[in-house]
Model the fold of this input.
Amino acid sequence: MPNYKALTGNEAVAWAMKQINPDVVAAYPITPQTSLMQKFADFVADGDVDTEMVLVESEHSAMSACVGSAAAGARTMTATSANGLALMWEILYIASGNRLPIVMPVVNRALSAPINIHGDHSDTMGARDSSWIQLFSENAQEAYENTIQAVRIAEHKDVLLPIMVTLDGFIISHGMETVDIYDDKRVKDFVGEFKPDHTLLNFKKPLTFGPLDLFDYYFEHKRQQAEGMKNALRVIEEVGMDFRKTFGKAYRHTEGYKLDDADVAIVLLGSTAGTAKEVIDQLRQEGKKVGQLKIRTFRPFPEEEIANILSRFKAIAVLDRSDGFNAIGGPLYNDIKAALYGKTSVPIVNYIYGLGGRDIPVGDIRKVFEDLLETARTKEIKEPLTYLGVR
Amino acid sequence: MAPSLKDLAKKPELLSPGHRMCAGCGAPIAIRQILHAIDGPVVTGCATGCLEVATTIYPYTAWRCSFIHNAFENSAATMSGVETAYRALKKKGKIKEDKVNFIAFGGDGGSYDIGFQSISGAMERGHDMLYVCYDNEAYMNTGVQRSSATPLGASTTTAPAGKVKQGKEEFRKDMTGCMAAHKIPYVAQASISNWRDLVAKVEKAMSIKGPKFINILSPCPPGWRHLPDETVEMAKLAVETCFWPLYEVEYGKVWRINYKPKNILPITDWINRQGRFRHLNKPQNKHIIETLQARVKEDWEILLKKEEIFK
Ligand SMILES: Cc1ncc(C[n+]2csc(CCOP(=O)(O)OP(=O)(O)O)c2C)c(N)n1
Done:
């Protein structure tokens, strides 16, 4: 029996955190993340969890405290957005380099300047090479379920890497949805216990964390870290399969929508996937064979799976909710093109949309598909990069 | 109770020999004195800097106790996370130890400057931990650059003495005073030269639950430009000139001076022994020495007054 609750995305993630009952949570306010930690603080204040909170004086200290806490063997979480994530940047690499499985929901928001509080993906894209796993969510339900799975993925012995679960600022974080909240005990059993092999608080075996590591060993440690990220591809699938067995809902690296007989496809991340499904349904009624591929696992990048799926279409459009500012195109576009190199020679175009929370109406997405169908027909790219919805 | 050398000699050395700090470095002297004052399990941490890089060169470590280095500016925040994890795991019955000592170290750069916010935050939050600044008065690990702990007139590689500039143009920051203003249970200033005082201060700090801060003067032969066997003497002269008074502050209101030199030595007795102040001996720089001396005197008199007020 589903247990539906009317929750915002932030509340849904706070509910996941309540059920995970982490040992330590560090928190610092930033819009649009703030209401997530406020909700979690209510759970702490009411004794619903026995988490110890560290109410730090900055996000830099939030991530620093998380590193100390996770190294001490505690299951550790924090959450942030935009400038907060940017301020953590130095310590993101230290968390992953020390192989600490910290779980961090990131409520995506545009980076300054100009300062803007609304949703785009520029913040987490800036951390895409930080060796954090990144799972994107389409809606509050997915944000809730990704957060639950994130703990298992990060703490897996073959992975031991920190993980971000992203949800689009305001669109998901503040939008009210019906969310099916699973039974506490089933979530607890699914998540399991955190049993790290090495901790600062094992006084029988004192260890040094974070030593100076020069040209004679650093490279080997980084090589192992890269292997952890590669292993995450398998572990994310395994945890997704176990999730389906336990809760009845399938999770994979990507999710296709009406792709089977499609001629053209768009590729995107996050909440816009929901809007695009509406457009696809409309276009399908008009007899147009269109579909979409939603990327859930952005780091590690499921290259093989994506290449297998995408190589059969006649034209592909990649929608990026952040710019690469590199005169080539958005970050997802570049990764998709790299994944398809040598596998197909169909036209691939890039659309950058929704920066600073600019709305992406169905009409814009319809236009993308219409252009794409035209490109498929002529086999000619008119505009490799389009800024969608910009004046 | 004042510790005896005999008792301290029986304590295990948690910082092992064989680390790669320079000959005559004050920092390992400070660390060993501190760790001698500790009973029971301890987690130490250190900011990036000389102490950290020279004691943890993988695959070796000089630390025989749990140790964590995170980054340059976050030793305090990191230890606050460790201490919070301890409380969480203790509450859940996952850890047996009833008392664990948490000590975070940082140089003056990592404490007065880039880590200032992190320390202030950790102290304000009330974590049960001791923060120790080993103050060698400059960024030594990167080659003797000026910090806010560098004294007026000292020549450093970023504020060198030259044809028109005469070293640092500002006074040092009163870090110990800043920490006292946090009104935390215990703040102290100590020196490696006065080991009995230093060890007693650490013992006292660790007997108090809550945030504690100790600032320890830690001379640096290559940075201060004195001989390696003069380190303890340099620390002692800083105390005897009242450049570095030994005192403690409880809850921001009980100020106690632990040592009052009978004959306060002139500041020149200290600075004339160090190459970093050599240029001050030029006749045209006499006023810098006078300004420094006047400030040291003024600070000492204020300290005496504070002790008096809060008696
Ligand atoms: C964010 C950051 N900025 C700069 C550095 C470079 N850095 C490493 S150690 C150091 C100086 C440390 O000085 P201090 O804290 O006084 O300790 P000391 O080396 O003198 O013992 C600097 C500037 C760094 N590691 N991280």
Q: What stands out?
A: The domain at 254-388 of chain A is CATH 3.40.50.920 (Rossmann fold). Chain A has a mean pLDDT of 98.
